[in-house]
Recover the amino acids of this structure.
């Protein structure tokens, strides 16, 4: 693996290019999750150069590298201005999950003894992860079965003295709808409970959509009772990955997120984030993206996103066998199938046509669906996207639903997954046609390519047939085998 002697940079870059040949494309709008494309190459170029410029600055010690303090103040300041409280204290983090982890930690430490996080079933799993890491308990509340917005009434019943934090999303990722932030924040405030708004995906989008004419309810730090809000710049801020901002109502709550240690004979530790040593590259990239686009740039992207979403929702409504779940308020659209059109098969068919549509499993009474995040680049290709969805839906209708091997979910559910070693698990997967190690083998990734990946419809159908805890156990095994 490690060469005896150093290799030239051209050779290294060529190898990276070859390795990436089987990846989903990060530009062009044919991948409707994971990546955010403005469609403006010069903006991304500015970000890349600024990222590289700041790459080797270590955010471990702000006194050593004042450039990073100045940049962080500017980036956090821009987010605070957009999200209803100019000057609000904040932290630049590596992403939504880290912002959420810190919001939960701050709330926990602000309310000693309170150990519950109350959240809608549509909230991002980062809260479950935070609760798991921080020793808290999750109390899920239902969402309305038609609108998919959290039930304020259920929050009212669930919040009490034991609650460390109430969580709402603006919007939720699965259906792209905004929870009743004002109602829940008021209920929380009345009980002295902090309220976090997860605006990871929507924080840097909803204000532009509102300015472009969309009806967006109040959701930010201007809402009484909201004590913190997370906003990922590496999503609709279009910054390179590793960029999120967590804002607090006041500096006292922000201090609860910090960590300091003098319990060793080395350098003093004072961390604003979970990570200690970390590159200032993402901060430089985020700052440059904000500067390269400016207010008008984001507003124009907001207009384009709004128009593309409107056309997508309208177009999907005309495709037989498909329907949009709820009324998406942002740019995230969930498309459910029907007994005739299996969305998992549809996703496989779309993949064959060169498009990635993200499958979402059924959960808490919400049907399985495919997720589409509309970004700045989508408008230019929205007709092509609709044609692909229609063609893939037609092919899925012809193929029929994915067939779950008889007895397999029952067999899996009956296994003690912890007792299986990775090799046995891989064999089990291979018996249903899934080669878990294919993409990880050196030399095979480029040749195999996306088109020759095994169909995922059966895998998704099997997962869908299993209870969530078994799904989780299976997913951990997938990952372990993939890296073996
Ligand atoms: C609403 C919401 N919260 C949190 C996250 C987690 O963000 P990250 O993947 O940056 O950790 C996401 C990611 O899509 C999200 O949509």
């Amino acid at each position: 693996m490690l060469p005896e002697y150093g290799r030239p940079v051209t050779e290294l870059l060529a190898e990276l290019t070859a390795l990436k040949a089987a990846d989903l494309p990060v530009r062009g709008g044919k991948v409707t999750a994971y990546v955010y494309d403005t469609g403006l190459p010069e903006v991304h170029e500015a970000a890349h150069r600024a990222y590289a410029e700041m790459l080797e600055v270590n955010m471990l010690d702000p006194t050593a590298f004042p450039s990073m303090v100045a940049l962080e103040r500017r980036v956090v300041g821009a987010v605070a201005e957009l999200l209803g409280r100019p000057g609000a204290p904040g932290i630049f983090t590596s992403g939504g999950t880290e912002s959420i982890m810190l919001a939960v930690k701050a709330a926990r430490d602000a309310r000693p003894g309170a150990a519950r996080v109350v959240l809608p079933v549509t909230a991002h799993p980062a809260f479950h992860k935070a609760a798991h890491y921080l020793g808290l308990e999750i109390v899920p509340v239902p969402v309305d079965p038609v609108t998919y917005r959290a039930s304020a009434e259920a929050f009212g019943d669930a919040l009490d003295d034991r609650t460390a934090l109430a969580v709402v999303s603006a919007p939720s990722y699965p259906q792209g709808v905004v929870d009743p932030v004002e109602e829940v924040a008021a209920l929380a405030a009345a009980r002295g409970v902090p309220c976090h708004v997860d605006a990871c995906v929507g924080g840097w989008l909803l204000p532009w959509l509102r300015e472009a004419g969309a009806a967006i309810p109040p959701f930010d730090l201007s809402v009484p009772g909201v004590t913190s809000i997370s906003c990922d710049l590496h999503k609709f801020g279009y910054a390179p990955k590793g960029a999120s901002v967590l804002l607090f109502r006041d500096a006292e709550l922000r201090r609860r997120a910090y960590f300091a240690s003098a319990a060793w004979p080395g350098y003093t530790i004072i961390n604003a984030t979970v990570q200690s040593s970390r590159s200032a590259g993402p901060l430089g990239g985020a700052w440059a993206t904000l500067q390269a686009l400016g207010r008008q740039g984001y507003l124009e992207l907001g207009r384009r996103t709004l128009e593309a979403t409107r056309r997508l929702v309208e177009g999907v409504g005309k495709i037989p066998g498909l329907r949009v779940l709820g009324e998406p308020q942002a740019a995230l659209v969930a498309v459910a199938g029907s007994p005739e059109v299996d969305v998992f098969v549809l996703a496989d068919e779309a993949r064959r046509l060169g498009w990635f549509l993200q499958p979402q499993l059924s959960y808490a009474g919400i049907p399985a669906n495919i997720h589409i995040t509309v970004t700045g680049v989508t408008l230019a290709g929205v007709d092509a996207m609709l044609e692909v969805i229609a063609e893939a839906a037609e092919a899925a209708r012809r193929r029929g639903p994915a067939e779950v091997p008889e007895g397999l979910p029952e067999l899996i559910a009956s296994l003690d997954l912890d007792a299986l070693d990775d090799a046995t698990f891989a064999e089990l997967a291979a018996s249903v046609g899934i080669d878990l190690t294919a993409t990880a083998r050196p030399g095979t990734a480029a040749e195999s390519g996306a088109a020759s990946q095994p169909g995922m419809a059966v895998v998704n159908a099997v997962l869908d047939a299993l209870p969530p805890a078994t799904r989780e156990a299976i997913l951990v095994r997938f990952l372990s085998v993939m890296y073996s």
Observations:
- The two ends are 15 Å apart (CA to CA).
